[in-house]
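Predict both folds.
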Amino acid sequence: MPFRLNRALFFLFFVIPALLNQPLCAGHNPDMKLRTVVIDAGHGGKDPGAISSDNKIREKTITLDVALKLGQRIKDAYPDVKVVYTRSKDTYLTLAQRTNIANRNQADLFISIHVNSVPSSKPRGSETYIMGTDESHSNMEVCKKENSVILLEDDYTTTYQGYDPNEPESFIFFNLMQNAHFEQSVIMASKIQEQLRKGPITVDRGVKQALLLVLWRTSMPSVLVEIGFLSNAADRKQLASESGRKEIAGRLFTAFSEFKKHYDSHSGMEIDTPSISTDLSSEKEKPVSSNSTAISSEKEKSASSSSDSSDWWMIQIFASKKQVKPGAPDFKGLKNCVEIFQNGYYKYCTGRYATREAAVKALPELRKKFEGAFIVHVDKNNRIL
């Protein structure tokens, strides 16, 4: 059997099942406020990242400066928010270490800052990535570039469960890896792009999905922002200047402030998200069918509650692009688990509470099994508001 086919089968039958046992999200704050942000300055130490053609400017230096400036702005404006840097000096960290820092600190938001570079000098502008499957494969080069840093690690195939950035087959193991905080990540990414296009680098390349290892195991809303192209003369001028980096950090701070306001006011709830460079937003909403008492259908639930209040609170425990089969062992013991297809994802919610306070009381018990469970507001048609 060809080697590449062997690798594909290995991921299909061994890696994917193991990964699906990983917690999907953390949902750490009992009061559902944004209290901790982890800022990741891309690259560092023996990993310089992108390098300018004259060999004078390195990505690792730019990202660290912007990260520290952003963190200081957040500290000054929000003393109650804990700011954690994955690195605060020119040190090397593995992608796994960066993720572990975010998870260990139970962060509510993870921001990874990078600088783009391509062989051509024409592309310019900023773009922000969230974890997800890029079905068009248009972002494959970005994935390879940002993921290739693991080649500097001694035993990367063990740490990343066989993943190899040089083997396209490796990407199949991402197909079933879904981010339970997908929608919140999109919102943060959109706010970043809304701000960055105001300058000093005004070209907006949009919000995109990509299979990025640094976002792979982060258990909170997570984004990776490419603040400009070192390979483009106009972008490079701004990235190399103190004033340009200061303005970029300021734009990122404004995006953070707007996201925090949204996060705190919605108490961790999911809402309809802005559009991104993916076909998910174009999918039609699908009716829910149920062949098991373990998962109720939307129609059944709506009919049984037609005489009750027009909306209520539930607890979302899981989200996946693929529908979960009835009788899934992970849902064993749950009562009234409802499947809702919305924004391209199957979302599984449980409980039905007249007030948010009642849902908050029930949340700790559910988090013993579903660490990333969070509260959502549902209307009379079982749509998440």
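Second protein follows, with its predicted structure tokens after the sequence.
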Amino acid sequence: MKNPPVILLVDDDFAFRHVMAGELGRLGFNISAAACGEEALKVAPDLEPEVVLLDLQMPGMDGLQVLKGLRELPHAAEVIMLTGHGSIDTAIESVRLGAFDYVLKPCALDELQIRIQRALENRGLRRRASLLERGLTPPDLGNSFVGESPEFQELLHLIDLVSPSDSTVLITGETGSGKERVAKLIHARSARRNKPFVVVECAALQESLLQSELFGHERGSFTGAERAKPGLFEVANGGTIFLDEIGEVSPPTQTKLLRVLDAATFRHVGGTTEVHVDVRVLAATNRDLRSMVRQGLFREDLYYRMSTITIQLPALRERGSDIELLARHFVEVMNERFGSSKRIGPAALRFLRSHPWPGNVRELLHAVEAAMVVCEGVEILPDHLPPAIRGGERAHAAQPAAASERLLTLEELERSHIRKVLLATSGHRGQAARILGISERNLYRRLQSLDLLS
């Protein structure tokens, strides 16, 4: 059962405190009372009230002084000032200083109840907004960046150099090389670290939806736009927006992005008012944007504006000395997650070092996770690794197929591989999705289309 809201009533009038505390208690509130400002500031830190009913005119510390003290507490309450007719101007000043509202004494109980409920709703909204902002703010992931190769150390040094600036950064690299993680680390080490970090997956959204998501829209601007909606640039205001797979953005959206980068302004879809934002832009792509510029597929001016600073992530095969370090790190992470104490054996490590890793660090992570799941002992052996890592599939593919051997279709190969992963994970779709490198929702769709649902 939910605990009743805690209300602190601060008033030097004993009769008023006694009557009002009794009435508010009868309405279901948890009431505490203080006879002066000094007492209120003394009990508030331990009491952590959600709403404070604060008399404006009191001997000693007056209401405005107490209000200022309450606003400095870590768990700031919503404050409703209690005032007489002769001090309305002062009550209005208290709202400017951070009070939620004020009511005139003597006040009707039903009116005060309504003000308290509104204050509680406002406090709930502020707390949810704070939680959302913290959820949009990634921690410093530096400890999870594992590698000792010169290429990787050079990457970390460049991240340290660019993070404190507000410059736009283009992060390039193959799929699975960790572009989003680099973007999060740049944000976490910037002056914007306590503000939102908003990810936009450009390749996953249709053109019309992408513009609406980025820039927001006005009510009635298109079919289904029943209410106005702010864009993700507004959500990221003060922080960082990360445009993943920027190479997939169409020319019309490229034009709008160029305006945001140049002038920090844009218009909602269907709107006429200029919206100003203060946002740092990070972008990533696994495509060759220079080649796309030459082909007329990407705006040259946007490319040069986006690539103020370019960070090229090395492929995993280019820093082969880090493969063993990463594999052992992932085993430690999985041991902590699964509550196990497994280790990776030297024979399995030899296979990992010889694999070309077209899927880069992400592929290595999934391979280690798959091996951890199917390993029943303490040591991960080559047989626990996925077939592609062991080289069996590559060796088989290198041999010409016999004339009588029927080559499998892509759908048959996909069905076979998904079955193997599900078998290895004992049918756990969440683990299977992580190993396959797709979302659980996408896995469900694939199971449905391949008639593998049971």
